[in-house]
From TrEMBL:
<dbReference type="GO" id="GO:0005524">
    <property type="term" value="F:ATP binding"/>
</dbReference>
<keyword id="KW-0784">Thiamine biosynthesis</keyword>
<keyword id="KW-0963">Cytoplasm</keyword>
<dbReference type="InterPro" id="IPR049962">
    <property type="entry name" value="THUMP_ThiI"/>
</dbReference>
<dbReference type="Pfam" id="PF02926">
    <property type="entry name" value="THUMP"/>
</dbReference>
<feature type="binding site">
    <location>
        <position position="273"/>
    </location>
    <ligand>
        <name>ATP</name>
    </ligand>
</feature>
<keyword id="KW-0820">tRNA-binding</keyword>
<protein>
    <recommendedName>
        <fullName>Probable tRNA sulfurtransferase</fullName>
        <ecNumber>2.8.1.4</ecNumber>
    </recommendedName>
</protein>
<dbReference type="GO" id="GO:0000049">
    <property type="term" value="F:tRNA binding"/>
</dbReference>
<feature type="binding site">
    <location>
        <begin position="190"/>
        <end position="191"/>
    </location>
    <ligand>
        <name>ATP</name>
    </ligand>
</feature>
<dbReference type="GO" id="GO:0009228">
    <property type="term" value="P:thiamine biosynthetic process"/>
</dbReference>
<dbReference type="InterPro" id="IPR003720">
    <property type="entry name" value="tRNA_STrfase"/>
</dbReference>
<feature type="binding site">
    <location>
        <position position="295"/>
    </location>
    <ligand>
        <name>ATP</name>
    </ligand>
</feature>
<dbReference type="GO" id="GO:0005737">
    <property type="term" value="C:cytoplasm"/>
</dbReference>
<dbReference type="GO" id="GO:0140741">
    <property type="term" value="F:tRNA-uracil-4 sulfurtransferase activity"/>
</dbReference>
<dbReference type="InterPro" id="IPR050102">
    <property type="entry name" value="tRNA_sulfurtransferase_ThiI"/>
</dbReference>
<dbReference type="Pfam" id="PF22025">
    <property type="entry name" value="ThiI_fer"/>
</dbReference>
Length: 395
């Protein structure tokens, strides 16, 4: 909940703090740039003040909830707190805590977490916490039976005192964490539109890599709804990256999928993955992307057993990143819901089944190469050259 009168959002980052001063300065700059872009994209009024270590958003009381959402959708942000701003002096801070308390406290234990960025202030954090705690107690004791618990309180009243202002908050909302978008090289994300691949793409974006989305159209095994679903998931991801071009490479793969279905029984699904990776490699070469991201998870499907991943991965020299490798489906679904791609991914796509009745779980590369079409890689190159570009934001 926001303290009444909150018009500022304190923004905290995490991994950026482990960097050297110059890298940290660069990454903080990127984070602020993206936060500003997210606010502009969502028409949130206000500005981001770039203060060393702790940027903040100055906005209006009416827009503080939207500013908080923008902050907690920005990669690199660990948490954010809406706060009221008061004069950085002992009495005004204590008075403001007493004023906030009846709105923010509804019973149970509480604590005051006071910090001073400016160590020259004429009071200590402990003195402030003690006087603030007493003021809060007195403000609520008629209506409640308050207790103080410094280790695990039900309510925390946060106070950050800096040289120009003090910030008071009662809520800390988690952000995505990770690193600012653009702090790592781009990667090609193979997006099927299913539940897993958009989450995998989000995970590398969260660690700083912009994505180049690639969707392989499956012809009679896919269809317009399948394709629309994939584009929709990219559109949802684009909300997190307003400064980035998320144009989808739509690669026509229908002929090859049909050919694999007609000519291969065992290993068909493995060759199809190899075809995808090869396409991704070609797109990476065009876009200077440094890796391939997929939504594969160990053992989730027959094509994702440890043996089969070893066989399929041999199709490319580029590293294949599988951020979901060790995640359970339930966790992935929860993640998809949280990032807002689940609904798109569960739009009925009405596609035909490509998998054969008897699936391969223990592929061997030599055996696969003996039955795989000799021209599989040429097919991938030629399909990529026929790719069309789809801007998901333009739909
Ligand atoms: N038509 C497609 N176009 C682009 N990439 C695809 C396509 N189909 C699958 N992929 C990629 O291959 C991975 C494995 O696909 P598969 O259908 O076996 O797995 P999945 O775990 O169900 O993934 P998803 O839920 O993303 O469809 C996907 O996560 C995705 O990265």
């Amino acid at each position: 909940m926001h303290p009444p009168g909150a018009d500022t959002v304190l923004v905290r980052h995490g991994d950026i703090n482990t960097k050297s001063t110059s890298v940290k300065r660069y990454m903080e700059g990127l984070l602020v740039e993206h936060l500003e872009a997210l606010m502009a994209d969502r028409s949130v009024p206000g500005s981001v003040v770039r203060e060393w270590n702790r940027p903040r958003i100055e906005t209006t009381e009416g827009a503080v909830a939207d500013a908080l959402d923008a902050a907690t959708d920005t990669f690199g942000v660990v948490s954010a707190s809406p706060c009221v701003t008061v004069e950085p002096a002992f009495e005004p801070i204590v008075d403001a805590l007493a004023e906030i308390a009846p709105e923010a406290y509804d019973g149970g234990s509480f604590a005051v977490d006071a910090r001073r960025a400016d160590k020259d202030l004429p009071f200590t954090s402990q003195e402030l916490a003690k006087a603030g705690g007493t003021a809060i107690w007195e403000a609520v004791e008629d209506a409640f039976d308050p207790t103080v618990d410094l280790d695990d309180p039900d309510h925390t009243f946060g106070v950050e005192v800096r040289s120009d202002a003090a910030y008071l908050y009662t809520d800390t909302v988690a952000g995505p964490g990770g690193l600012p978008l653009g702090s790592q090289a781009p990667m090609v994300a193979l997006i099927s539109g299913g539940i897993d691949s958009p989450v995998a793409a989000y995970e590398v974006m969260r660690r700083g890599s912009p994505i180049v989305p690639v969707y392989v159209a499956l012809g009679e095994y896919g269809g317009p709804d399948h394709e629309a679903r994939a584009i929709e998931t990219v559109r949802s991801l684009a909300r997190y990256a307003p400064t980035r071009d998320l144009t989808v490479y739509r690669v026509p793969g229908g002929d090859t999928v049909s050919h694999l279905a007609e000519t291969m029984e065992q290993g068909r699904m493995l060759s199809l993955r190899r075809f995808f990776y090869r396409i991704a490699e070609h797109v990476a070469a065009k876009t200077d992307a440094q890796g391939i991201v997929t939504g594969e998870a160990l053992g989730q499907k027959s094509s994702q057993t440890a043996q089969n991943l070893a066989v399929t991965s041999r199709a490319t020299d580029l590293p294949i990143h599988r951020p979901l490798l060790a995640m359970d489906k339930e966790t992935i679904v929860e993640r998809a819901r949280n990032i807002g791609t689940y609904r798109d991914s569960t739009i009925p796509a009405g596609c035909n089944r490509i998998a054969p009745d008897r699936v391969e779980t223990n592929g061997r590369v030599e055996q696969l190469l003996a039955v795989e079409p000799d021209d599989l890689y040429e097919r991938a190159a030629s399909a990529t050259s026929e790719a069309t570009l789809i801007d998901p934001r333009g739909r």
